[in-house]
């Protein structure tokens, strides 16, 4: 497709990003340390780490992995933590030592964790002790992780504050379930051991793997998107080129409320603002909206990323409108559709636009972003970033003209190499000419703005997180009282969508409550059905495949009739 979007680019944004300024993400970090050593790099719960301190601590952790436990280059290291300072230290330590980061959602159930650790072949894991009981349960099911590093919330707080924080978390708030793991190394022990050795230089280049970033699939099995250093560095360069005119190096303060284990915050907040010498203000628990708003009041923040549900929750808190937004330059919404009502209210309250963006785990993630010069909500997911090609294609693979609806396909330096150990799945998502099939239906207008129309996949989007029906169906189907099950997403004011299950009973006594309780033991909270409808039978094709589409259409008919 001709790059018609270039004519709508804001002044100063290049068509191409050109040669990458860094050879690896470790090199990106090293150059930021050299430029901004004494500037703050990360802050959490009142503790601030400068670039120099982040360098020293991540170097010690890297040396621990390399010299003490002697992991080979390319080893996979799992990180299972919320937004705490230890995550930033471990992240850059793993990358600069030539290892691969495997990000893990700390809210995973043992079943989900078991799959990801086995599939990735992780040789080490860094885990916040609040979630160590989950790892214990996964190990009981046969998971083998040779090296386990356990950290506590207050481990990077100075002196008495750290000890008090850990005491309160464990014994007052009782946020740490009992756990027992074999051969554990405590975080502070690992840093101390690493500090006594010397990190040896390791050759890490653009084509080396940086992340196995897990994402669901139509098969219901989470797959690891293989993201090279080049992929993430390209997306950082693309994003930086897009916002360059609005930001100043060494001065930005970005609010990082979305989890860093999620690709959106990982690239947009952590990597991009580190390259700019900015400060990441980490929010460990953004669900605590009163606490979140109180923390926002401590900073003259200049940038913020989030999902629609987060922005909506903030706007509905009475103290939010009283904050000082005079320094705010960039608010970026992604992960799920930004609703017009939320975008307009955000502009009314903060005086600044809420810009919608679009991306995928497989694209590192950003594909399109609305221009920084946009003043009002425009229903679009924006323009393709520099060095990004898009193509709207029919089911037969033919490219469609401007205005036509078809599958959005993407090609660019930010697109993943492949799925980890899944050549069959990789082959399914790439076209012969190298475009990634997103599974989303979109159209492009004459000015190059892209509009999402619908999702081709059956994926359900709950507060920006992907839920794949097959995974939920597999769990429900294991219940002895269930004969058949199908799962779809239904609209929800708070989270965009929620999971709804349609069940044919094997046991007449089966209840909705029993199914939900069953799922809560086996699935992360956002994947658990919020509604269950019992049916005598489910719609099927002539070969017996359950038709989720028919369930969605039937529900739409009922809504249209006001039922």
Question: What order do the helices and strands come in, and which of them pair?
Answer:
Elements: H1 25-36, E1 40-44, E2 47-50, H2 51-68, E3 76-80, H3 85-96, E4 100-103, H4 110-120, E5 124-128, H5 132-140, E6 147-151, H6 159-172, E7 184-186, H7 187-195, E8 209-215, E9 223-228, H8 229-243, E10 253-256, H9 263-275, E11 279-282, H10 289-296, E12 303-306, H11 308-315, E13 330-333, H12 340-350, E14 355-359, E15 366-369, E16 383-384, E17 389-393, E18 406-411, E19 418-419, H13 423-429, E20 436-444, E21 450-455, E22 460-462, E23 465-467, H14 469-477, E24 482-492, E25 496-505, H15 512-520, E26 531-534, H16 548-560
Parallel strand pairs: 1-11, 3-4, 3-5, 4-8, 5-6, 6-7, 10-11, 10-12, 12-13, 13-14, 25-26
Antiparallel strand pairs: 1-2, 8-9, 9-19, 14-15, 15-16, 17-18, 18-20, 20-21, 22-23, 24-25
Helix pairs in contact: 1-3, 2-3, 2-7, 4-5, 8-9, 11-12
Descriptive overview:
This protein is an alpha/beta fold. It is built from 16 helices and 26 strands. The strands form five sheets. The chain has a nine-stranded mixed beta sheet with strand order 2-1-11-10-12-13-14-15-16. An eight-stranded mixed beta sheet has the order 7-6-5-3-4-8-9-19, with helices on both faces. The protein has a four-stranded antiparallel beta sheet with strand order 17-18-20-21, with no helix packed on it. Strand 12 (303-306), helix 11 and strand 13 form a beta-alpha-beta unit. Helix 1 (25-36) packs across helix 3. The two termini are 44 Å apart.
